[in-house]
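Why do we care about 3D structure at all? Because function follows from shape, and shape follows, mostly, from sequence. That is the central idea of this module. The next example makes it concrete: a single protein chain, its amino acid sequence, and then its structure expressed as tokens.
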Amino acid sequence: MSQAIIAPDENILKLNYPNNEYIKTGSLASDVDWLDAGGNYTTEAFLATIGESENDVDIAFATEKADDAKLRFILPTLAQYLLIGLRETSLEKDALRQRVDKWSAYFRALQHYCYIYSKESVIEACDCLDANQKKFSRVLEASLKLDPNLALFIAECDGFVAASEGGEWLNATYVTLELAQSHHQLLENLEYQANQAIDASKQLEDAVSREKADNELLKLQVEQLQEELEVTFKKLQTETDSTTNKQRKITELEAQLTDNTTQIARLSAELKKLEDLQQAQEAQASQKQPAENKELELLQLQIAQMQEEYERVYKRAEEEKREYLALKTKLIDGTNVSTELTHELTNAMNEQELLQLQIKQLQEELEFYFVEYQKLKSEGGSQQDESLNEYKERIAARFPTLVLTESVTLTGGISREDLQRITVRLTNVEHANNHWDAFSFTVNERNGVLELEFHAPTEKRVYPLSKFIKTGSSKVSDFSILTPFTDAGKKALNSLTNDDKLMLVGLLEEVQAKLEAREVATTEATQQLDLSSWPSKLNTLREALVPLVSTTPAEKPLRFKKLTLKQNMVGPSNEHLLISVEGLRHRVKSFANYEIKIGAKQIKGEDFTNYGSLEFRELANKQAPLATWPPEQEDKWGPKLVLDLPEKLNENQKTAIEKLKEEDREFISELLKQLADRLHTLDLKRLKLNQPLKNWQSLLSNMIDKFS
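And the structure:
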């Protein structure tokens, strides 16, 4: 039998095994999947995995005869590794940094392989320094620990070696990897939130300042127009019935109307410049930070609505121009001139007062949203997340169909006499508290009938609705046809939640608006497609959907923002998923990141199982996951509550559920229901599922009734 000896480089291997003359170099895969071994855990199987990829971890290895087949990993401390490296590396900062990175990569790869080959692996310390070098090594290690990240790695290495001496490979690997992952994610989240808050604040303050100035200018113009109308009204009251005087007044009105038209044209040009400037700033901001703050987009929506109000003011001015021409005709005809003109001018003044009031209300509303956002910006931590969610809910309550996207791209289309079709892909999609990086859907006009089409969810295809309603199949996948114009389409729509139908209306509004503004991108295959008729078609479909939707928001006892898979452990007869629920809120309680472990037991062959389990542990900042806490059970990682949930519960299992407080049973039931409905949105983070999602959804659904 033979054993394999692995070291980070040839020098260390030679120092530990000076008599071995068969030293080779190679590389270990840093992202090895623990299922890749396929049940073969021999030395030969390990050696077969060593490659020569430049992206992997460089190593040196050798083989020698031994009584048992083992994998001997030589693990020097970071200080030892740097001292030995000085024999062949110059004393430069860049070179030292590269040595630290190489040692870190080797340590991470060693953890993965020890986890896979746990019974066949041995960790061997590096004992190749003389007495003076050992003293210097301890001094060097103390200086390295001044850096928090290096201190974390050194602590992990020491703990890993200590645990390995007792043979506890699984615990050592699990703890160190989880610690490193949590530390890295925490740093990333803090840095991202800080940058996002700073950028959003600057852009928001600039946008609000510009809009306030625009509103003041618009208000001044309206007041001037009102004053001119009042002056004209007073002059007309003192006029005689003389035809000459009437004609003179007509001339004055024409001059005033020309001035008003000029002012409106100037306002339009200035507003266009502001819009162009805002679009340029938004484009520049999107280049610097693709993941734009969605709260800023909601505020920009309010600004856009104010611009729409201005356009209505402009249109009203045009109507007044037409009314003026009608008044001129009446003056020329000489029929009831003074009385009718006075009445018409009075109405015009009332209209101007109403428009001025509307503009003032819009300005007050904009100031309200700005103050609300400043409050959110000044708060921090979980309180900020909770306030931000409340702010989003208030926006969603006022605009329940609002859907925001970063971009819309036409990816496919058909134009035939019997079938018209467009397929669009949307990126960075926001609706209420939900966010999707990207997804696609199709709108068909089949023999004159408009319909929405969604394909079934897969690991690579995002399905945005809460559940998939299968109405047909093709060679590509199952699909769902939703339309208010056929009985089958209405039945499918009625199976969806009200939130789903609100989002469908919002999707149609968003794509229609992008088409009308010519902001839909095309591909090489779709750039010649005629889109001129599609805005009206989308509007027809949207108007038919609106009567099926309730715009009164329903109370949601439990809601969350995102699901992320953190672990996928697979054994011979059992599996479990560790899922992180981001932004979880249940009635008055809120959790920034809630973790729950969902287990599947007694799996036999290709058949899945109806035997489930749930595991709860203490959350970050020692936050209790349930009101019934702490539990009786505890291990080295702290208190934990495990609920076994087979298809038929025994007395002990029933008692464990009955010991929970009523609010916990309601919370778990609602959480399981939401997980089953939205598991298709699970972010896998490059992890591979051993079971299809529908198996886990079925298992979750079976567990719900046990808590009712």
